[in-house]
Specification:
This protein is of the alpha+beta class and 791 residues long. It is built from 31 helices and 17 strands.
């Protein structure tokens, strides 16, 4: 069998393996493509984006980023990941008539399958061992972090990061034009698929190229030039997917704050958490969870990687060619850098003791910035020359003569880079990049996701360790060892059967009517805001009209102002003047939306009453039944909408609306409230304090605190909550509607916190929130009666 045929056969067998593993590790997702999903919020946005990419490619690809949600905002697709590189794989499925959610679920499974296959290909190229390289694919695609990130489709598309690494390595090794072309293609495809992975791939490329410069073989400069040219070509090809983000950022000032970035940076203990889905380690590691955490990769992968490092550490490294003597010019430059380093070290100490230090007209900046410059000065000094008494001439000479295999060293440096990047705002280095190159680094909120570099390095090292452990064994014994390791990895990573949310994708009568209705302008749907906008965004793919609502990573200020006005009680009268500014012609009100909070129905019912009484609304029809009834109205500021319902149906719609508006709000309105602290999934100390507010037209009698283990006491009432009285001017108790409570002193680990708001008229609203309880708090803050939150 020829080498090419053998490699093709290996690829087919690996593809079959990862297809089966993908179905197994995500079960029962493959059996519920149309009616279930791991997430029903970001998943709906992702499903809509994939569908929009397809529709606009056929209709007007040059206007791809002018998406019709959050209307009339511009470059709306740039408010989130555009995922075009992933979407193209679903074009045939959508062309065949598949619903958006089916396409989304297939795309999700495909992302995991291709990630595993790409990591396998990279490890095979590294180790030359196709069987052992299966472990790399399992680790990279299915480790606990990737399963915890299932709601974020773009984070599962890590295949092109591996392929960029693969073809960069090949181009640097052989300089073949074919590999350079594939490097350019994968580089551009990676950018078009996930901008976050594209940014993190930049760190990977930097590590590879720097190591190649200081420790590359003779003749490396031509191959380096070819690699850089290929990636530059890929960068130019990807500009249509980058420029809209720059435009949107300039228009809407879309920049993450350093506090937001730091909050979503990793903490060291995140590497001890396997996440709530992991069946083996989930509960054991719950106390170390955090936002964007769950980095624990399992014991088997760490053991294999450690074994590889030990085996690849050569006790007697091969002799390196003697380095040329250090020239006088380099020695002089090194001595100059010594002086610079001493000055920077002194400045670092001084700035730590003196905030906002200035030396004459020059501002030193914070200590972290000085440390970054000191680090760069030290590295530059060592690159020029080691100290005179050292047995190494320079950093390059040191690397060439160290005992660890060159490939293993590269992977260790890459893993360290991934850890450093993931720590983000908790280190001076990423904070320096964030402040110095804001247009690039301020676009990324969850910098903890840079841990992907650690994961790809770990996957290759583990496969390498497995290959070394099984090498030179008889074929049956070798196959048994590989199968045993793969079984252990799958057992460690097991999260199936995954808990899936039910999704009803059946057509809704109101959207079927909208699809056939002919009117200019946009649709606005009420109730407005999260989580309702998630469903409206997905359903826009059905009716195709521009939509004022929208769910995305970013929202324009005008939309946030509208949402705030609709949150008031009563709803601000200014919304009637605001709707026309959005170009809204038709208002759709859903009378029984899923996940509505207790206070929404009265607010919106009163808004409709006022709108009809003042002639601001014209009923166009009532659609659906008791569980999904929606009313469509023409806004008085909009042009006439042609009648599309026969008179009997319109008369029935009037009766439905009258019956809905006749409901007594006071009779049915339960208490309304918000639990602000702790946040969902937050790690909190037992005995620390939680805060929120609660109101009812009859007054709040008590607030009962508990967990799944039972009652845990009552909250303290009567705290001042800033802005609450202005938001609810008709309720006299709003000025003192805040409450506080001591978090239950339960055992560390995940718990379900319950906060029951009990009104004086007997109405009850229960707020449920998953939390992770850590060790007891050292001290208890002041009672909310003495100090309200935010005061």
């Amino acid at each position: 069998m020829s080498s090419r045929a053998r490699r093709g056969r290996e690829t087919l067998l690996a593809a079959a393996f990862f297809l089966g593993v993908t179905v197994l590790m995500t079960w029962p997702q493959a059996a519920r493509l149309g009616d279930g999903a791991r997430d029903l919020w970001d998943a709906k946005l992702s499903a809509w984006i994939l569908h929009w990419d397809y529709v606009q490619t056929l209709r007007d690809p040059l206007q791809l980023f002018q998406a019709p949600i959050l209307y009339p905002a511009r470059y709306v697709l740039a408010f989130s990941e555009n995922m075009y590189g992933a979407a193209v794989f679903g074009f045939p499925l959508l062309a065949a008539g598949a619903p958006p959610m089916v396409n989304y679920n297939v795309n999700l499974l495909l992302a995991m399958f291709l990630s595993g296959l790409a990591a396998w290909a990279l490890a095979r190229d590294w180790t030359g061992d196709p069987a052992a390289s299966l472990a790399a694919g399992v680790i990279y695609a299915f480790l606990p972090y990737k399963l915890a990130q299932l709601p974020h489709l773009h984070m599962e598309w890590g295949a092109f990061l591996c392929l960029v690494f693969l073809f960069l390595r090949r181009t640097l090794a052989d300089g073949r034009p074919r590999d350079a072309v594939l490097l350019a293609v994968c580089f551009a495809w990676n950018v078009a698929t996930c901008l976050q992975y594209a940014l993190f791939t930049g760190f990977l490329i930097a590590v590879v190229l720097i190591l190649e410069v200081v420790w590359g073989p003779p003749g490396r400069w031509r191959r380096l030039g070819l690699s850089v040219a290929a990636m530059a070509a890929g960068g130019v090809a990807s500009l249509p997917f980058v420029i809209p983000y720059l435009e949107a950022s300039a228009i809407y000032r879309m920049r993450r704050s350093i506090g937001e970035m730091t909050f979503f940076s990793a903490q060291p203990w995140y590497f001890l958490s396997a996440g709530p889905l992991n069946r083996l380690y989930g509960e054991l590691t719950a106390r170390w969870r955090g936002p964007e955490g769950d980095f624990f990769p399992g014991l088997a992968s760490l053991g294999l990687a450690g074994f590889a490092i030990v085996r690849l550490w050569r006790r007697s490294p091969p002799p390196a060619p003697p380095a040329p003597p250090v020239s006088r010019a380099r020695r002089r430059a090194a001595r100059a850098l010594d002086v610079v380093g001493l000055l920077l070290a002194a400045a670092a100490v001084w700035s730590a003791l003196t905030p906002d230090l200035r030396i004459g007209p020059v501002g030193v900046g914070d200590t972290g910035r000085v440390i970054v410059w000191l680090t760069l000065a030290v590295l530059a000094r060592l690159a020029l020359a080691f100290p005179a008494r050292s047995r190494y001439r320079s950093l390059g000479d040191f690397l060439r003569r160290q005992p660890l295999d060159r490939g293993a060293l590269l992977l260790l440096l890459l893993a360290a880079t991934g850890i450093l990047v993931s720590l983000g705002g908790h280190t001076p280095y990423y904070r320096f990049l964030f402040r110095s190159f804001g247009s690039l680094f301020r676009a990324i909120r969850a910098v903890a996701r840079g841990v992907v570099l650690f994961q790809v390095a770990l996957a290759i090292l583990a496969a390498w360790g497995l290959s070394l452990w099984t090498r030179n064994r008889p074929t049956p014994a070798r196959a048994l060892r590989v199968a045993l390791v793969l079984a252990v990895l799958l057992f460690e990573y097991r999260a199936f059967p995954l808990p899936l949310f039910e999704y009803d994708g059946s057509p809704r009568p109101v959207y079927e009517w909208l699809r056939t209705a002919d009117f200019p302008g946009a649709v606005v749907e009420l109730p407005l805001g999260y989580p309702h906008d998630c469903e409206y965004t997905l359903r826009q793919a059905e009716h195709r009209h521009p939509l004022v609502n929208g769910h995305s990573s970013f929202s324009p200020k005008e939309y946030e102002d509208l949402r705030a006005a609709l949150m008031r009680r009563p709803i601000a009268e200014s919304v009637w003047k605001t709707f026309p500014k959005f170009g809204a012609s038709v208002l759709v009100f859903h009378s029984h939306p899923a996940e509505a909070d207790a206070g929404e129905a009265p607010r919106y019912r009163n808004l409709l009453r006022r709108g009809l009484e003042e002639g601001r609304l014209e009923l166009l029809g009532s659609f659906g039944g008791e569980r999904d009834r929606a009313f469509a109205f023409r806004l008085a500021s909009a042009p006439p909408v042609p009648a599309s319902l026969p008179e009997p149906a319109l008369a029935r719609s009037r009766r439905d609306l009258a019956a809905y508006l006749a409901i007594s709000d006071a009779a049915i309105s339960p208490p309304v409230g918000v639990l602000q602290v702790p946040a969902e999934g937050a790690a909190v100390a037992a005995g620390s304090w939680g805060y929120g507010w609660a109101l009812d037209d009859s007054g709040i009698a008590e607030i009962r605190i508990g967990t799944e283990l039972g009652p845990a006491g009552l909250a303290q009432l009567g705290a001042v909550w800033p802005g609450l009285a202005q938001a609810f001017p008709d309720l006299t108790e709003a000025e003192h509607g805040g409450f506080g409570f001591e978090l239950p002193r339960v055992a560390p680990g995940p718990h379900d916190l319950t906060v029951a708001l009990v009104a004086r008229d007997g109405g009850i609203t229960v707020i449920r929130r998953p939390i992770v309880v850590t060790a007891p708090a050292a001290a208890t803050p002041a009672s909310p009666r003495r100090k309200g939150p935010g005061s």
